[in-house]
Each structure stands twice: as structure tokens, then as C-alpha cells.
Amino acid sequence: MAGERAGIDVGTVRYVAGLCRLELTGDEEELFAAQLSDILNYIDKLNELDTSEVEPLAQAIEIPNVFRDDAPRGSLEVSEALANAPEKTGGFYKVPAVLEG
Amino acid sequence: MPVEDYDIVIGLESHARLLTETKMFCGCLTRFGAEPNSQTCPVCIGMPGVLPVTNRKAVMLGLRAALAFRCEIPARMRFDRKNYYYPDIPKNYQVSQNYSPVGAGGFVEIEADGVRKRIGLDNIHLEEDAGRLMHPEGSGADYSTVDLNRAGTPLLEIVTRPDMSSLTEVEAYMETLRRTLEALEISDCRMEEGSLRFEASISLKPLGSTTLGKRVEIKNLNSTRAVLNCLEYEIRRQAAALDAGEPLTQETRLYNETTGRSERMRSKEEAHDYRYFPEPDLGPIVVLDEWLDRIRSEMPELPNLRKWRFQEAYSLPAYDAGVLTQKRSIADYFEETIAAAEAMGAEAADLAKQVSNWLMGPILREVNERRVDIAGLNIPPAHLAELVGLIQKGTISKNIAQDLVPIMIETGDPPETIASRRGMIQISDAYAVEKLVSDVLEAHGKQVAEYKDGKKAVLGFLMGQVMRQAKGKANPQVVREILTRTLQS
Known about the structure:
Chain A is an alpha+beta fold.
């Protein structure tokens, strides 16, 4: 049953975890593979309906052309903006080293 | 094989920061150089539960570009989420347009080596910029810093087809793009501030071969110079590899401006899978005809089209037309001067070239030295038209006209007023010149005799004497004419 149709295997879980920068243990990979497969199988039920004539919908109620004027609204104080940062330095967020190239 | 034995295929992606006061989806300012993290709010730093609202001006600027580049504009468009995890993008997705870009197809018409060519566009789309990541200078730092002021800044990405086949074309394309975006006030294109950035893709294949070569993408190109240097390096690198029979791989490389080389990105960074999906927090945009009509009616002539029109309508050399259309204000000034001159009755065949010479020479020199816009120079087009007219009528000499320019700037007065007030009007009147000439000839009987003996070189000396008598104000052409005639009679 689990994973039969949607086929989320451990490899896919590892790939998606990589994209999300998540580190999983082997047990977790197995567990999530089964759970994700269950979820997708459940959603798969929708495929029983013929939707070939239905436009994809991104929102239930679409209100077109909602805009704001290009006018400044004021920003957070630097201290407020950084308040939730686990680490900061001199007005910057501090993150693990990212070396480009 | 030498590099000439390969076909070069180049495409460019350009990111232009749109000329808005505020960000794409929130009211934070987009000013460059502000204190780090001082222009952010819950929307652009990705706090949960916030709702973005689209900046109308950014959308209109995107549509303006789409019209200018003759793109197909969708009746209805949306934004999409491009998902990736990186510290410069706190939401973990960038809002972009993947499925319904503001412009599809279209072209940028360039001129390279005198040949006009349309560089096809794949699409142009709106998106938001990411934040700025910096790695502290010096060794040993095990962290990077993030400034989110730039996050959410409206960008226009312009993606060409692989239509460029030489560095000359690439240079002309970048120049045309920059001039067009500036003239249309879509972007200020300040490369030193990162307002215009590039990514290139390039492949080589043996001349005439129909199989495409392996495409290499290069990121991190922050100036036109970097693009050209980097592509030159890549062409040589790829040609050498193909010559040696080494296989090239489809890959992404980063350009290092310091070493002038491109380096392969680690495959981990290369593995992109953006999982685009429609941004559910933003409603669709239904493009109204009235918007497009208004944008069309406000659209100035594209700089290249104006350049080519200047060449044809005013018979100007390509060089002149290029300089004059570099800035809209200068091109406008040129055309206003011509119109004013014509209104004053000027009908010389080379009027446009005369105006062009004065504009490109003394006027633009003053503009550059004084660091002002041409409109702020205090010489309205009518005054320049009058100056050119005075020279053509022989009322003042070119040298006097040169002297008049700074005075015109200081006083704001028209040239004829200044010239007559300061006694700078040239003596062109035949009677007055004849009087000067006969005085000089009387005083220099020896030289007159020499001239009549066939020593024609004394003419210069006598000319000088007449000019001296006239305190430099005599029209040299008239003097030469009358002097020669009198001596020969």
C-alpha cells in the first residue's frame, strides 16, 4: 500500500531533504518515505476525476489587479529587524560561511 | 584550430533594477548605500503571516519594456515562487514570473560593425532581488554576513536567445540595452551599484557544424567589461579544449574578476530544482488596454532608432548621431536647436553638421566640466541656434564664438547681445575692410613690391598686419579676398 503508487522512495526523500538543507537520519528517511507516500496516495484520489477541461486554479477567490502606489511606508529599526536573528554582527545577520566560487 | 574556425553562440541574461522608490511587494525604500538592514520590514524579510502587495509602478515599467522590445504581452499574468534555500533569501523562495512573463519573444535591435541585427529575446520578466551576502575580508572568518536591504527590490530580467556570435555583438547588445533602459527610465543601469548585472551562456562548435556545442553558463558578471573579458577567456578555453579533443561539459562557472578566469562551480551548488508554483499570496494581473495605450503614448523614441533617424534625416555621420543620442536630453537639445535655427531663417545645407559640431565640441565640454545636465547649462537651444547663425552670416568668427560660449553660460544672454555689447562683432563690411587694407598697403610699400616680384609668401604677413589693425575683429575670409584683389590690381 504505502509508497506503491506515488513511489516516494528513500532516494527521493534524500534529494528533497538536500534541497531543503535538512539532515535526516536513516530511520527518518525510511519513516518520511512511507509518510510522504501515504500523503501522495491520498491526494492521488483526486486523479480519479477528469480535470482535462478545468483550468488550474492558484487561488479560490481571485481578485485581479491589487496594487499599491510606489510610496514609502517606513521600515523596521535595524534592532527590530535583527531581533529574531540567532546571531548578528555590526548591523548584519551572521550566518555560516558561504563562499561563492 | 584557431578560434576563427569555430562558430560562437552566446546568449545573455540581464538583471536591471527598476527605477522605483520602493520595493516590489512592500513600502521599504530601495536606496543604494543605506545603513545595512535599515530598509526592511516583515514582508521583505519573510516573517510568517504577512501579505505582499504589488508595486504598480514596477509592473508598468515591466510593461513599458515589453512594449519597447516588441514582446508579446499576456492578457493575464501572475507571479510564481522559485524555491531555494540560501541565506540571502529569508523566505526560501524568490517571487518571479515563470509561467506568464510580462513579455514573451521580442527583440533588441543592435548595430555592430555598421550592421544592424535583431537579437531575439526569449522573455522578459519581473522578479524581486535577493539580499546581499558578504564574506568578511581576511582569513579565518568562519561566517558570512547578510544585508537584506536589497531583498525585495524590483528587477526586470531580460533573457536573450542564443543569437550573438561575436564579442562585438555582445558589446553592442549590452550598450543598446543600457541606453534603452536608461532613456525609457526603466532602470538607471548604474553598474557600480549593481543596477545592471549579467549572466552569459556560451558554446563553440566547428564552423558550419549543425550540432550545438556544450553550453557553459557564467554567473557573477557585474560590468560590461567583466562580460567581455570573461567571454574572451571562455572562447579561448573552450577552443583549446575542443582542439585537444577534450570533452566539454554543460556546467555553470563563476567569473573571478581578480584572476580574469572562470571557475567551475561545485556541482552541489549547481543542482538547482526550483519547484516553481504560482504565488498564492498575490492575485493575477489582468493587463488592461488603457494601460498599454497610456504607456505607448508616453514612450520616447528608442535611442538606436533615434540615432538611425539622425543619420538619415540630418545626414549626420554615424559617430555624430551616436554621441548626440547618447542621452535623451542631448538629442532633444539638438533637435530644438535645429528647429530654432530654421525658425530664424537658417537654410545652410550643413546646418545640422554645424550644430552637431558645436554641440559635441564646446557645449558638451562645458557640460562635462561643469558636471551639469545640458538643460542646466544656461544656454537655451535658441541661443546656440543664434550663435551658429551669426557664424554663418559672418557676423562673428569661429574664434570669437568659442570665446562667447563661457560668457553665454555666465550671463544667460543671447550671443548677439553679448558680442555687440563687448565689441566682438566681426568686421565683414567690404568698405571697412578695404579701408584697413589700403592703410596697411600704404605703410608696407616694401612688402607690396616683393609680392609683385612674385614673392607670394608676404601675403601672410600683410594679412597679419590687417588683422592687427582690426584688433582681430576682421572677417579673415573677406580680408584675404580684398587683399588679394587689391594687390593684383
